[in-house]
Amino acid sequence: MDERIDALLKKAQKFLRSAAVLFELEDFDSTASRAYFSMFFAAQAALLQETQALSSKQGIRSAFIRRFVEQGPLPERAGDALQRAADLQEIGDYAYDFAVSGADAEMILSEAEAFVNSLENLIKRPVA
Fold this sequence. Notes:
The chain is an all-alpha fold. The protein has one domain: Nucleotidyltransferases  domain 2 (Four Helix Bundle (Hemerythrin (Met), subunit A)), CATH 1.20.120.330. The protein has five helices and no strands. The chain has helices at about 5-25, 30-50, 55-70, 75-95, 100-125.
């Protein structure tokens, strides 16, 4: 496996663990941010596996959804989860007060765990 892909997957898992710790500390804005970036790094890794050129955050999200959701093998809910996480990350990182609810943080953390683990399995699956 390309070392960049491996590094991105490790970073995704680390950010996922950080998000879980932040959730326990009831820092829901930071939970949303770390959860989103765990998904973002996993999406980058999946695109690199396909030798896709990587650009901006929005470009990576769009390319990921086009390649892995619209063309398969991932369900539409994967693209929806990535977009929800991006929206919550923006709110959590840029709102002037604490804006992400505990329920939203819990939901996005759960979605991020499923997203990252699914992509890691997809990337590491042997080619038939």
